[in-house]
Amino acid sequence: MRLVLAATLLLIPLMAYAQEPAPPTSTSTTPAPARPPAPATATETVDVIAVTPLHGSGLPRTHLPANVQVIDARTAPGPVTDLGALLTQGLTTLQASEAQGGLFQPDVVFRGFSASPLLGASEGLAIYVDGVRANEPFGDVMNWDSLPPGALATVNVMPGSNPMFGLNALGGAISVRTRDGFSSRGGRLAMSAGAFGRVRGDGEVGGARGPWAGFLAGSWLDEQGWRDHSPSALRRAFGRGSWRGASTMVDVAATVASNDLSGNGTAPESLLEVDRSAVFTYPDRTDHDLVSVTGRADHLFAPTLRLEAMASVRDVRLRTLNGDAADDDAGLGEDAGLLNRSRTDSVAGSAMAQLVWTRPVKGRAQHATVGLSADLSDSGFALVSEFGTLTEDRQVIGTGVLDPEASVGLDARTRTLSVFASDTIDVTRRVHLTAAARVNWSSVVLRDRLGDDLDGDHAFARLNPAAGVTWDVTDRLNLFAGLSQASRVPTPVELTCADPDDPCRLPNAFVSDPPLDMPVARTLEAGARGHASRGSWSVAAFATQVRDDLIFVSSGRLRGTGHFENVARTRRHGIEAAGDWRIAGLTVSGSYAWQAATYGADLLVPSALHPDADGGALPVEEGDTLPGVPRHVGRAMLAARPVAALDLGVQWRAQSSQMLRGDEGNRLAPVPGFMTVDAQARWRLGRRLSLVAQLVNVFDAEYATFGTLGDAGILDEPYDDEFRFVSPGAPRAAWVGLEARF
Questions:
Q1: Domain residue spans in the chain?
Q2: Which homologous superfamily is 2-741 in?
Q3: CA distance 358 to 361
Q4: Contacts (Cβ under 8 Å, ≥6 apart) of 478
Q5: Cis omega (within 30 of 0) for bond into 507
Q6: By three-state DSSP, how is residue 68 classified?
Q7: What confidence category does residue 328 fall into, taking pLDDT thresholds of 50, 70 and 90?
Q8: Distance CA 129, CA 113 (A)
Q9: Which range, of 141-155, 480-494, 684-698, 711-725, averages the lowest pLDDT?
């Protein structure tokens, strides 16, 4: 934490050394609406999209056979507290749920596939930051709170099962590019405060002199949380040094974070009807510490031949403290609880090198990439469970007596080597053909520190291809179609929590080591996109089938207990559309997605808490809906500048109902859908100073973003028979702040 504070404080004196005043391109990390962009023209700027995780040379969006989306953090329509919040605001076919019960630990679901910080979510999205894999090695989880928001520049979202983005890209890949001193000159300081006891400060500074450039960003946030017993504190810093020569570029970047997060999870639905801020049991805290260093070098051998390389080391430490009811009171009485403490230490190293060749072939333009990558990690996990007692407000107080059967000690080592190639060639001036392939070799070695029950040696290998075509029908209309395949490897968490007869309490315990198969996804996608003088639009249809998909089955009697198992087939298919229109000081945009995420085969799943279970098992039929994925997702945004000094913004989002986790057979009423409205304003008090304000959930809607089955037996009547547990959405809240630019 001292490193984070020191790096943040360095921002203030560095402001004086910025080479020129900051243009209005700095990422807005305090509440503010998007500035209305200038009207587009028929010759609007072409987005160049990297075809691999390395943001180097790339292709125009119209050459890529998928509905690629690009998010510019500088024009985010609402508050940007972290990467997860930015994605939630900017992506079609995406929704965020708060299964963990915290604003900074969302489950991001895109096309029915999730990226979550919670062990137990079936991870199906690959996340990269500056070419470095951000999915944590122990469970492929994604900690959205790592980066300060001021470090974010752009985000490329590659939908479909794109093999060029390696393991986990079953439903898509998210590739983040951070800022540097060449493109972000000047400085910004911002402070805001308001609801939930939140106080926040952000700062960035960047500059360049000759071939050298530097950039720093820092952010701190403290809040008490809107739910009971839910304080959080975030401390994050990012820095980058750059050198650019005539044909060579070198970058070194570092990220440091020390975050203390509260996420008290789901609560009985009937309890929340009385008190929306109530929690079921507590504490539930996560301490997340990260140090990451990345080196990047590019060299241009010739105008048509370029080498791009990256190497990175990440040190991640997670500490959790979780209080919950006990399934065995161990003589402590009916108010028995468990206080679980876990520790996960991971060191991950990665390296990637690729050659990019753009020399025409027989007069036809092409963009070829060939490369290799290596990802290595060593993780240690330890758990102790302490018997405790529940207070009247369901806090678990430890007794000092440990459960000898619950202790876990596990070492996990993962190794992945990949070779990949991609080529896009112009068949004609308007038709572009793409072919790609990647081979992944992976191993997962598990060693039990306390015995040999968790020992295991697993090896996986897979060749994943892709092909597609795009057609520029006119200068303003582009059609595309593609077929792609990707796979993922079962994580150490999944491999050690796969026994249906011995459910795990995630994220805190593991059992035996049955084998699991590698999920393989195939996606077929087709669509159209275009632009007019004042706007742009896109529409796409997609269908993904996953063979041997891995799901978490709620087979235990306590909330959060279950196991992982392979399912023969699951399917996700849908249609998504988006568009925007701009005129003078007004921007209107919107998106809508219809999606269906279903089981592709009949199966019988354990479901100990389901009221319709027969002998503790629930039949699931082909076509039943996967939990946690709504059929309909929509959003709209209006940004206006009524006068020169004032920006206003309004965002609307809605989604339909979703099935409860544990109700895989779709027998129970779903979690209801909802609609929320947010608003922001920015009043420029001068050339460098602005007053900003934000109001979320304007109409104070009461809604839930996630649901599961649980046992509320520790509660008094009439709540003790409740089995529906949900994560409530945040109520109406407001923040105000000041922002200064230099």
A1: 2-741
A2: TonB-dependent receptor, beta-barrel domain (2.40.170.20)
A3: 9
A4: 62, 470, 471, 472, 528, 529, 530
A5: yes
A6: coil
A7: low
A8: 19
A9: 711-725
